[in-house]
């Protein structure tokens, strides 16, 4: 029986290499899919429907990599997706969507100042930011990624929110 | 050509006696022929002697010409004969004792062959051989506890079945279910089996990660919510097993990564960061030990002014500034 034990033990040693698949950022992937949906459920003014569809990311965030990955294969209607990274609010240029990461060094008010009157959908991921100027804020409820919608903060930038988006939001203000 | 003198010695002899005659001469094919005839004579049950020698002759056939055959019918016939012998309602006698020993030997060969057949092409035969091994051992000793062996075999089988996961091919849902079942069976036998707990957690985690990885960016929100619900359930399935692995201090670095990632999948960033920080501290501890050894080696060589020495000391200092408790760890 000793020989058998050696065979089995050796088999276990060589074959116990279960590896965790850490190639996917589960949270960023979910958010990217939400953002893709937002491009379909929010309407931009006519002038914004030409040229590239620009999504800016403020602050260090894995969302930049994930959105860049998405941009390789997806378009928004006929517009090419372009992803930009802004290290600080002073670098912000005209965007369709501005994703403000929780790692952003700037205050949300500084970001809003830079957006000015551009037709930009501002998306954040910190509690309470939907009351501080964000149009959409990502939240976690029961371990699930959800989003809050502040219609006023969207519409003040001349964007139109579809009723479907309202229906899908966790909360609407 | 057999002569009359050869035939002559069989006159008046029964088939069993003839079989034994050939057996003693190692003419096993002839022995087999006559022992089978002998068994066929019996309408209800065969005598212990007949069963024993049938088993013995078939065992000898297996050993001499069929040892490499992992599905040897000679072996199975030998086992069948000895099993019938041992389950006869007779008092223990020389046949039973010797029969039990041979049956134990045959069970061992089944176990060995089951282990050798654990590859993608032959594992079904391995499972069959292992079942035969179990049933045979239970005949030899009805009170034997085979749970440890069962757990080992199932673990080895699960590991083998998981090999496609390490390639681009991945696992399909049927394979995942099969592996999951095996680990759950091991855990039912041994709830503190570290390998089964850890690997089951990884299996679940990878299943959910795979679903998320393959999601199309164009998926609508209703579908996204459904898929998210499903993945959360799977991450929650993984969690207790990874926590058990943590309790058991099994593959601690990999387990910490596992816990961090599972909590990340559950969108619990606080707990995810907690385990990430624990991993970083552990790795800092390892690096601390490594640096001290390297610095000592250079000191012993009198290389205190070398660039390398300065570099290691700087790194060590940075580590100690970040993790104040490291020096206290012995």
Please supply descriptive tags for the structure shown above.
heterodimer, A: 173 residues, Rossmann fold, two-stranded antiparallel sheet, 24% strand, globular, B: mainly alpha, Serine Threonine Protein Phosphatase 5, Tetratricopeptide repeat, 3 domains, 14 helices
> What's the helix count of chain A?
6
Basic shape of chain A: globular
Question: What Rg of chain A do the Cα atoms give?
Answer: 21 Å
CATH class of the largest domain in chain B: Mainly Alpha
The percent of residues in helical segments of chain A reads 25-40%
Structural class of chain A: alpha/beta
Please indicate the count of domains of chain B: 3
* CATH superfamily heading of chain A: Response regulator
Number of helices of chain B: 14
SSE arrangement of chain B, N to C:
HHHHHHHHHHHHHH
SSE pattern of chain A = HHEEHEEEHEEEHEHE
Tally of individual domains of chain A: 1
Low-confidence stretches of chain B: none
Molecular shape of chain B? elongated
What's the arrangement of strands in the largest beta sheet of chain A? 3-4-2-5-6-7-8-10
Can you count the beta strands of chain B?
0
Total beta strand runs of chain A: 10
User: CATH top level of chain A?
Assistant: Alpha Beta
Task: Explain what the structure shows.
The complex is a heterodimer of chains A (173) and B (330). Chain A has 173 residues and is α/β, with parallel strands linked by helices. Chain A has one domain (20-172): 3-Layer(aba) Sandwich (Rossmann fold), CATH 3.40.50.2300. Chain A has 6 helices and 10 strands; from the N terminus they run H-H-E-E-H-E-E-E-H-E-E-E-H-E-H-E. Chain A has an 8-stranded mixed β-sheet with strand order 3-4-2-5-6-7-8-10. A two-stranded antiparallel sheet of chain A has the order 1-9. In chain A, strand 3 (75-76) and strand 4 form a beta hairpin. The termini of chain A are far apart. The mean pLDDT of chain B is 90. In chain B, helix 3 (28-41) runs antiparallel to helix 4. Helix content of chain B is 74%, strand content 0%. Chain A binds chain B through residues 1, 3-4, 7-8, 11-12, 15-24, 26-27, 29-30, 32-34, 36-37, 70, 73-74, 140, 143-145, 168, and chain B through 108, 111-112, 115-116, 118, 152-153, 155-156, 159-160, 162-163, 165-166, 195, 198-199, 202-203, 205-206, 208-210, 212-213, 215-222, 224-225, 228-229, 231-232, 235-236, 254, 257-258, 261, 264-268.
